Amino acid sequence: MEKADVIVIGSGQGGVPLAVDQARCGRKVVLFERAALGGSCINYGCTPSKALLAAAHAAGRARLAAPLGIHAEVKVDFERVMERVRSIRASFSQGIERRLTEAGVRIVRAEASFLDPQTVTGGGLQVQSPLVVINTGTGPAIPELPDLKGLPLLTNLNIFDLEKLPRCTLILGGGYIGLELGQGLARLGSEVHIVHNHDRLLNHEEPEVGEVLAEALSRDGVHLHLDCEVNEAIYQNGICALTLADGQTLRGDAALLAAAGRIPNTAALGASAAGIDLDKQGYVVIDEHFRTTAPGVYAIGDVARQPAFTHVSWEDYRRLQAILNGEQRTRSDRVLGYAVYTEPQVGRVGLTLDQALAQGHRARAVTLPMAHIARAIEWGHDLGFYRLVVDEDTDKILGATLVGYEAAEIVHVLLAHMQAGSTWKILEQSVHIHPTYGEALPSLARLLTQ
Ligand SMILES: Cc1cc2nc3c(=O)[nH]c(=O)nc-3n(C[C@H](O)[C@H](O)[C@H](O)COP(=O)(O)OP(=O)(O)OC[C@H]3O[C@@H](n4cnc5c(N)ncnc54)[C@H](O)[C@@H]3O)c2cc1C
Ligand SMILES: NC(=O)c1ccc[n+]([C@@H]2O[C@H](COP(=O)([O-])OP(=O)(O)OC[C@H]3O[C@@H](n4cnc5c(N)ncnc54)[C@H](O)[C@@H]3O)[C@@H](O)[C@H]2O)c1
């Protein structure tokens, strides 16, 4: 039995910096990782998907430039696109290994499970520690479909290993992954069908978000099957056929992508041996201070049902580190921002109007269409809108939804206002630069004076 000061299970976005910091403080740290170092974000998530989208959006922009008087002939070298994706992913993962090693973290390349709250085993090793941090993330949820067994399913785990672009790709799910990869594959030349079991894409967002994205995806030739389920999936001779509830049959050359949500990576953990409670879906139950129900065991990131974003897992690490140092921090008092990297992008922060009303705020929303923004007209971006949600009692900004060009960047202006506790009146008085997309934010706030 080995002894350590800290055990980290999973090299996700919070686990790696935590392990590095603890090791730099002179503690003996053992990190278990059963797959590639760097977790979902680097290997099967943000990094490869955004590298792929860089190529896809370059192709898409070129094709859609005709209204500007530019007529481009686009030729996609899919092999080269994917080589670039994989080389960026490999270099990021190697960087993680270097960081951990240089800090003196002992890396055990094996699946870990608990023997008791202080003892973890994996790769033939048993390690005992007073502090264990679980950062094991999530994996793709596979929809329960009759006859799905035997079908070579694509998920976020293997799609970035593709060598050949599928002629036709059938995607289950019109959420983040389905939309980003659906538009990406379409722009690279695949015939894409998205089957979504809700009548709106990205159905947790302001209703108009789904409408704008549906229009944008249609312009890219994506076929949308909304409010629709798959009844049957058959795989024969390399061809997969999906029969939809509306009677249509979609056929693809073996490319069916499951993008229908996530399941937590807890099955292998042996949580019950350590007295770690899981919720009904298998997520680790934590309190406001990331404590699980087992003494000395904490959980951060996606596996603890925190909002499933890289920056949240990273911020969890900062908060847990502060808590371990005796500071008064909690897990949920953050201004949450996130984005969807379709074109147009969706930049989000804080509450939607419905969420604000449901939380008891006397909330009001104002909306500015893209077509009223000078920069958007000049650049030929006609799709999208900016929406601001404010509290009528305090004038505080409660949230925003920006749908438009580089909205993921522009939404940070509002995130900074919210973090600083400022009001829409301060935003309205700010003189932003002309002609920019940012200039539209004070104009948006000005609508509240009417
Ligand atoms: C396609 C896709 C695109 C995404 N794009 C974005 C984006 O643009 N922006 C964004 O903010 N977020 C994005 N996300 C979400 C983001 O990837 C996750 O929220 C982020 O990785 C945080 O994960 P984590 O730190 O909780 O753990 P993860 O990064 O999931 O890491 C968990 C690690 O634990 C390991 N592990 C699991 N069980 C065990 C075990 N028993 N023993 C040892 N090791 C184990 C796993 O192998 C994995 O390496 C995307 C996700 C996907 C799937
Ligand atoms: N840009 C980003 O930050 C980014 C990108 C990708 C993923 N992510 C993270 O990863 C998480 C998972 O993404 P996701 O897209 O898998 O999940 P999701 O929950 O965002 O979307 C899945 C959608 O699929 C639908 N669905 C479920 N089962 C279905 C079925 N059988 N047939 C048709 N539709 C079905 C659901 O209604 C749901 O809206 C996200 O919640 C997000 O936190 C973030």
Automatic annotation (TrEMBL):
Record has Membrane as a keyword: no
Protein name as it appears in the record: FAD-dependent oxidoreductase
Top-level taxon of the source organism: Bacteria
Pfam families, alphabetized: Pyr_redox_2, Pyr_redox_dim
Required cofactor(s): FAD
Ranges of residues in domain FAD/NAD(P)-binding: 5-314
Species: Gloeobacter morelensis MG652769
Keywords per UniProt: FAD, Flavoprotein
TM stretches of this protein: none
InterPro entries: FAD/NAD-bd_sf (IPR036188), FAD/NAD-binding_dom (IPR023753), FAD/NAD-linked_Rdtase_dimer_sf (IPR016156), Pyr_nuc-diS_OxRdtase (IPR001100), Pyr_nucl-diS_OxRdtase_dimer (IPR004099)
Membership in a protein family: Belongs to the class-I pyridine nucleotide-disulfide oxidoreductase family.
Domain Pyridine nucleotide-disulphide oxidoreductase dimerisation span(s) in chain numbering: 339-442
